[in-house]
Amino acid sequence: MKTKYCIGIDIGSTCAKTVVLSQDKSVLLQLLQPTGWSSVDTAEDIRRRLESAGFPIEGGAAVATGYGRVSVPYADKCVTEITCHGRGACHIYGADQLTVIDIGGQDTKIIRIENGAVSDFLMNDKCSAGTGRFLEIMANTLAVRPEELCSMAAEGGGVSISSMCTVFAESEVISLIGRGEKRENIAFAVVDSIVKKVSSQAGRMAGGQGAVCLTGGLCGYPYLRQSLSDALGCEVRTAEDGRYAGAMGAALSALALEKQQSAEK
Amino acid sequence: MAYELPPRFAEYNEARQKGFLTVKKVKEDGGRVAGIFCTFTPLEILDAAGFLSVSLCGMSGETIPAAEAHLPRNLCPLIKSSYGFALTDKCPYTYFSDLIVGETTCDGKKKMYELLGRLKPVYTLHLPQGLDGCALENWTAELRRFIAFLEERFGVSVTDKALREAARARNQERRARMALMETMRAVPPPASGLSLYRTLEGSGFLFDQDQRTAGLDRLREELLAAYAAGERPVSAASRRILVTGCPIGGVLEKTVGVIEASGGAVVCFENCSGIKAACQMVDEQAEDILSAIAARYLEIGCAVLSPNRRRREHLKKLIEEFHVDGVVEVDLQSCATYGVETYEIQALLRELGVPYMALETDYGQGDCGQLSTRLGAFIERL
Q1: Is residue A119 part of a domain?
Q2: Which end of chain A, N or C, is surrounded by fewer C-beta atoms within 10 Å?
Q3: If you average pLDDT over every residue of chain A, what do you get?
Q4: Among candidates B163, B167, B162, B172, which has minimal Cα distance to B213?
Q5: CA–CA dist B130, B140 (Å, integer)
Q6: Whether residue B6 has a cis bond before it, omega within 30° of 0
Q7: What is the 3-state secondary structure (H, E, C) of B243-288?
Q8: Among B367, B369, B377, whose Cβ lies nearest the Cβ of A67?
Q9: Are B332 and B362 in contact (CB under 8 A)?
Q10: Number of domains in chain A
Q11: What mean pLDDT is predicted for residues A217-243?
């Protein structure tokens, strides 16, 4: 019987996140794993892990989201990551007026929430500037991990990269390395470029009420949050569970789906 | 008279070969073909001069790489595709056109026509930039010059009587198009937007005027009969979408197709092949029929005009008439005129409280995943 718990699965371009919620919306389980090269294998792996943690897929409604959402054959429904991030962020931050900035692996979304529902959104298109992938590539070039790059950036300054194209920006970083520029300063330039891109996107959605909060894989990086707050002129909130916002939203959708289905019976 | 097929004809697929042979037959039977690009082309003049008009707007990315040898990459895909078809001899209508008629609409098109003129006989009509001042007088004079050109170049005579007759027949076809599109006001609509659009687009390639009009009427009757018999091809739960913006023939699947696969139903097309250019009639009784024809074309609410007030008035009306839940603007890459107007359209729709999303796309497949997420999320929020 599908009544005890609900499952949300967010298969992103870089990481797959899973959240299991109880009927009263408390978190029973969170899983995080790299998506790898096959969303289908990842979905299967999630199914096995859920089962061994005592939450077999047959026991609860499941909603899939993220770019790999169509590769989850056992999901009862697919919902786009925009709706899920919005819903998840409302729950995590306990607010129904909110601007959500989700910096994901391959795209960045600005989602406006009014009265607990998505009222408008923007997404980067045709370009990876200002995304997690951009940060990852630059971190690789500097031979550090993305989180190290962000902490290094706090110590740097005085340098900027002008190119918005990831490939050209990488060449700029390589020439900065060649010039003997300090790694901290290059790291600063990388984060600065992301912050500028994201804040100009967020600026196009200006005029909303309520807090601005960050979700997605980069929300655990304090320096990024601080620079984004400075650029937007308001405090950007983050939460420990911020990167699970999409999966949380999917689990909440599963909960709603189940209620709807039992009401129809 | 005998007509040659293009040198690479044997390499074409069956459908394309068939297209070439059909148009070749039309020409051998004495027909003259005018290739056109835009809803501003005064069809009545071409009808009265004995030309068969057919749209040459390129709807496939196939010829874009060839076109990019002459044209910049960051240009509208419709312009590049159309030019590419002329360059590669892959479109039977372009290939067999006796004349190609262009207008000074957007910058990309009017500059492309200059290059196209090196490959084909092109006549470019100077469309006014806006409606104020002497726009109508200038446009009427421009049409008169066009008639003089046709008469001299092709040895035809364009009489007022023939113009009036053409206006009557074209009005009838426009009324049939409108009546067909208006069936979509029903909740739920009697057809999917995708199938309706394909029908409207396809009818443009029928050469016989009466057959075109009768085909549209017949389809409307069939739809209404099926609907009355209880057929509901579209779910009543579908969100009702109005599509506005650029011509969408080349991006139909990844926009309209995706909307309709994500719980939406496109009930109204406010763009070139849709209502935008079908809802105005020529005053058939007017004393000066040419001036009445000119006036009719200037009523089209296209973003190439400055200012373009009609589009906003029109949208407002259509949203109500078609019970629209949300508006999706589909713009083609680098379309400056529609791109700039999105700001005002967004403001208008905010005022009306109707959700709106604008997206820019091209004829490639690279953004399909993104479009389906964005359109999916848009419909989820309705």
Answers
A1: no
A2: C
A3: 90
A4: B172
A5: 14
A6: no
A7: EEECCCHHHHHHHHHHHHHCCEEEEEEECCCCCCCCCCCCCCCCCC
A8: B369
A9: yes
A10: 1
A11: 90
> What CATH number has the domain bearing residue A252?
3.30.420.40
- By Cβ distance, the residue of B367, B376, B381 closest to A125 is B367
Using CA atoms, how far apart are residues A94 and A211, in angstroms rounded to an integer? 11
Q: Is residue A68 part of a domain?
A: yes
pLDDT attached to residue A1:
44
For residue A109, tell me if it sits in a domain: no
Tokens of residue B207, six digits: 């050469």
pLDDT for the residue A3: 57
Q: Among B355, B367, B380, select the one facing A126 at the smallest CB separation.
A: B367
Strand partners for B240: B265
Q: Which residues of chain B have pLDDT under 50?
A: none
Residue A183 has pLDDT above 80, yes or no: yes
Please state which architecture CATH assigns to domain B9-158: 3-Layer(aba) Sandwich (3.40)
Query: Rounded distance, CA A97 to CA A217, Å?
Result: 22
Strand order in the sheet with A77-78: A27-34, A15-22, A5-11, A60-65, A77-78
Instruction: Name the residue among A244, A234, A247 with its Cα closest to residue A99.
Output: A234
What is the interface pTM, i.e. ipTM, of the complex?
0.80
CB neighbour list of residue A84: distance below 8 Å, 6 or more residues apart: A8, A10, A63, A65, A245, A246, A247, A248, A249, A250, A253
C-alpha pair distances (Å), B213 with each of B37, B46, B202, B204, B206? 21, 18, 12, 10, 10
More confident residue, A252 or A207: A252
The string of pLDDT tens digits covering residues B152-196 is 999 999 999 999 999 999 999 999 999 999 999 999 999 999 999
The span from the CA of B344 to the CA of B312, in Å, is 9
The Cα B311–Cα B42 span in angstroms is 20
Nearest to B108 by CA among B147, B128, B67, B79: B79
Size of the A and B interface in Cβ pairs below 8 Å: 36
d(CA B378, CA A69): 17
Domain of A61 in residue numbering reads as 5-84+244-264
Tokens encoding B109? 């098109």
Considering the domain boundaries, does residue A116 fall inside one?
A: no
The pLDDT value recorded for residue A2 is 45
Q: State yes or no: pLDDT of A124 exceeds 80.
A: no
Domain residue spans in chain B? 9-158, 162-381
Residues of B in contact with A121 (CB under 8 A): 374, 377, 381
Q: One fold for both B9-158 and B162-381?
A: yes
Q: Is residue B324 within 8 Å of residue B187, measured between CB atoms? A: no
User: Which residue, among B374, B267, B370, B242, has the nearest Cα to A118 in the 3D structure?
Assistant: B374
Q: What is the pLDDT of residue B222?
A: 96
Once rounded to an integer, what is the mean pLDDT over residues A144-167?
90
Say if residues A64 and A11 touch (Cβ distance below 8 Å). Answer: yes
The label of the residue with tokens 């340098």 reads: A159
Position A207 pLDDT exceeds 80: no
Interface of B with A (CB under 8 A): 355, 359-360, 366-367, 369-370, 373-374, 376-377, 380-381
- CATH no. of B162-381: 3.40.50.11900
Give the whole-angstrom CA distance, residue B245 versus residue B327.
10
Residue A103 to chain B, least CA–CA distance (Å)? 15
Picking from A149, A83, A66, the residue whose alpha carbon sits closest to that of residue A121 is A83
* Greater model confidence, A14 or B233: B233
Give the tokens for residue B187.
Answer: 């909740």
Q: Which two three-digit tokens encode residue A159?
A: 């340098």
